Fold these 3 entries.
Entry 1:
Amino acid sequence: MKRTLLLAVAIGLPAFAVAQAPAKPDLAKARDTVNQVCAACHGTDGTSALPANPSLAGMPADYITAQLAHFKSGVRQNAIMQGFASTLTDADMVSLGAFFASQPSKPNIAKDASLVRLGQKLWRAGDAATGVPACSACHGPTGAGIPKLYPRIGGQWSDYTLVQLKAFKAGERGMDKAGKDVQGRIMHGVAQGLTEEQMRALAEYAQGLR
């Protein structure tokens, strides 16, 4: 790299023009990490068997990487995840993001029809009276999310989604003092307009999306 930079200077090219590209994700190493550490809570393929723990299969890679970085820096609080993330390098986080993104998400089932009806209305149209936007605007009609910005929540366990919505509303997530969790801060604002029944309805509806 040093020799390349010297050559760049010699011929008048800016150093950034020849900067090394980021390393490619190491999926083999990521799989080893998943099997040894992540699988207990998130499954070997990113599909959690426990409703309290999120499924990560099919999640946008950049989102996973960003959340791991937030855990490591303390932007996002969770004792278990912070302890795990503290051992990861930037390359490890990128590789884990790529691994989970490469795993096919598995469909889930919504069970409460009355909650699903309310959740569907909020998901598609929001609630103008309280200023809540349609969830589909950021998470998509099927809950697949938007790479680099918003997570997949279609098929996610309703128990986990409800806990996160409550955390956003209470300011326990997305309100770090440094303001680094930009999307989390947006969700904090959105959650202020949601009642507990509406949060339950959205979580139930999202669980059945595919």
Entry 2:
Amino acid sequence: MVEIAVVLVFYGIALGGGHLYLALRNEGSDVPPSARWRYLAVLIVLLVAGAVLAVNGEQTIVTIELRTIGRAVIGVTIVGYVLTEAVDGYRTVRSS
């Protein structure tokens, strides 16, 4: 479990930091700044949800385990991100 956490933290710092730097400078011709901000938002949600699950995954809220809620949040976040990027990519292709 510790190895996975270390990989996720490294991934968050390396790729998230690069996207944050380029988004703040409004640079990068391959990826538009709006996509960078979306990526950063998803990365933050996934890292926070993963940390909460790692620390408090066994606890319950009312009658539902926190792990179930966390997995649902992670799933909805990933599906929402993929759909948003797909729609944005489609609009970009259609407008050119």
Entry 3:
Amino acid sequence: MRTIFGEFGELASAEVIKDKFSGQSKGFGFVDMPSNSDADAAIKALNESDMKGRKLTVNEARPRAERPRGGGGGRY
């Protein structure tokens, strides 16, 4: 990922998300680019492109919606 996204500018970080038990890639990751214009260029160029026979989906990450906490009652 660093090589591909690095063609568009500086990377603050790049991480492939892996299964915590098997260590296998989950098929997605996150790249942080300090420059919005570099990030936009990478998204435009790489979204729906092909990498090693797999179609890439590249977009801006958005925060997860807050999920209600599970479980029943609380501690008192």
